[in-house]
Model the fold of this input.
Amino acid sequence: MNPKHLKFLKKRKIFFYSGLSALMLSGLNLSVQAQDSVSHVESHKRNYVKVEIFSVGASADISGSKNHPDRELMGTRQDIALSSSIRINHLFSNKIGWYAGLKLDYLDEKSSAFYDAIPVGEILLRVFYGGFVPAYTVDAGLLYRTETKRWDIHPRVGFGYGLFLMDRDSDKSKTLEDGSKQRNIYTQRASGSLLNVGISSHYFVSRKSFISLNATLQQPLEKSYGELSTTIDEQPTVNRRYESAGIGRNLTLSVGYGFTIGKRSL
Done:
């Protein structure tokens, strides 16, 4: 890949994570301010934190782009994958709050036939995770709160960064029968920023703990791509590229357990 392109990608990721950190710090600042105001005015909805843990479910690939003639330039994953997540929700006002989450999808991923390398890191990941590759998503955003004595419903929207398939690179050369030198360069990029839309329902089984039901839709905001270039004696002969914003577009349904920090009172 062009060094300038790599430098641009690194700067873009630094900018993204800086923005995400600023969003979370702003949320914390708003939370502190809201907590100060609530201490002076009694409210029927308290300022408190929910931690959703042990959330397990299924993540479905609904990209619908597997029949494209150049789709072979990208790796593939199973249609439905095991998924787990953790989410922190801070409810700092009567109507809204902010959240931050981490989601892992355990992929049985198959690399493209054009990828020609020994993926040591990927092999170690598969051994550690029982033959699967964990694809992660981190996101943060705002949620709306609707609450009753036993049930809470929180629609949410946020932005994040996700790894939908492993990023891969290979660069192999070989000598042909006529003595010429052939070089194959392959690149796969399937990670980037995304829009996250979801809804969670919480049923309180005790004063401090609840069962959560979650639905999440993730849409990439950047195109994933697979690219192959071939040269013979440094003369270009093949240049193929497949790109799609649909790669990794996931619908996730899950159920989990959570607890509260602080007083919840209606």
